[in-house]
TrEMBL record:
Organism: Staphylococcus agnetis
GO molecular function: kinase activity
An annotated GO cellular component: cytosol
GO biological process: phosphate-containing compound metabolic process
SUPFAM superfamilies: Ribokinase-like
Family that this chain belongs to: Belongs to the carbohydrate kinase PfkB family.
Residues in Carbohydrate kinase PfkB domain copies: 1-180
Protein name: Ribokinase
Keyword entries, A-Z: Kinase, Transferase
Highest classification ranks of the organism: Bacteria, Bacillati, Bacillota, Bacilli, Bacillales
Amino acid sequence: GTAHITLADNDNSIIVVPSANNEVTFRNIKDQLAQLEEGDIVLLQQEIPADTVARVLAYCKQHGVISILNPAPYRDIDEAVIENADYLTPNETESAALFKEDLDEALERYPNKLIVTIGDKGARYFNGENHVTVKGFKRDVKDTTGAGDTFNGALAVGLQKGFALDKAIELANLAASYSV
């Protein structure tokens, strides 16, 4: 597929023509999934079919494989999909579209699962007792394209290395700040 990115006022819009991404099925990738071991991490986004995302997350949950779902590009997500993801990492705009409730309420509904990125202000989550904001890093922003992808990749690395959630998010914020 292709993606055409337009920039205006340090923000981007992406027009995607998915092509091969639309052909990714659970059947296509089940052999690769079978090679995963407990404690491995799978990072998913929504550029592949919703059914594939749902089935991969269910597989991961069943086999003890950690999963991160970056709900971009935005589309509605079934509650079962959210429940099967270990981590859900929308930005503020995606979070507002996914959860028609106040951000604090959404965070409280998904403790240690819902991590909402808030640009250079960092990221927020609820640890079961307190709302936590992990600080971001201010940069001279040129282009935010890929910042969410960078955040999620670094979050996966931090978690794989055994970092506590707040430290993994701090690493992710730092990495994302260098991508802008």
